Amino acid sequence: MRSYLTVFAPPERCGGPAPRIWNSQLCGYAGYRGTGGTILGDPANTPFTDLALQLGWQGPKNPTAFDLLPWIISGRDGQPQLFPLPQGLVREIPIHHPEHSWFEALGLRWYAVPVITHMRFRAAGTDYPASPFNGWYMGTEIGSRNLGDTHRYNLLPLIADRLGLDRRTSRSLWQDRALLELNQAVLHSYAAAGVKMIDHHTASEEFIKFRDQEASHDRAISARWDWIVPPMSASATRVFHTSMSEFATTPDFHHQPAPSFSR
Description:
CATH class of the largest domain: Alpha Beta
Strand order of the largest sheet: 1-4-5
Shape: globular
Helix content: 25-40%
Structural class: alpha+beta
Order of helices and strands: HEEEHEEEEEEEEEHHHEHHE
Number of strands: 14
Largest sheet: 3 strands, antiparallel
Distance between the termini: 41 Å
CATH architecture of the largest domain: Alpha-Beta Complex
CATH topology of the largest domain: Bovine Endothelial Nitric Oxide Synthase Heme Domain, Chain: A,domain 3
Number of helices: 7
């Protein structure tokens, strides 16, 4: 898989606000507010889902936990415009397990390609607020974080129960065992679908190889330990034991304040 970057005009070229893509990623699943503080879908996207509904997004007739959000894009006037996604535009991967047949019945899925849209690109002293770029997934981004985190889909208790694990005590390591099976299912499903994905052990070794190559040419590398070290089996990877430092580079990407909207 290749990575692509699309750079839209900066403010100084627009004579006003620059184009902005309001989604944090080009693909994302809705998080619907329910009664008693419950969320159907991805809690990370609840504020964005609120905005989409406020702008007139209808959503599916029967909401699910995996409804793709529309795009919200603003141009030179700075006003957000809603763009619902055509059916079938985004490829999604159904999640199933190589050994546990019940896994498929959970109805889990995730989109194939991550496209980051909320960061600004800086090059040659110029900021570009709309500069979407894609990569490809490392399995733990989906299995450990998106589906496993307690503030996201929080699937570990459900999977632990399906595995028959004892959740009465953390000493049973039910979280760890459920996390392993969830990550195995994600890696297996993407491979079965023919979609590129890297596992965290391979990614660790690739980073170490890159570090050594740069060091052989007396070049320092900028890296954040908490971004490089995987959220699963961290100490079993060499990057866990590697010191890192972050310093300014150019060109690079930066976080930027989210656009705001009021009628």
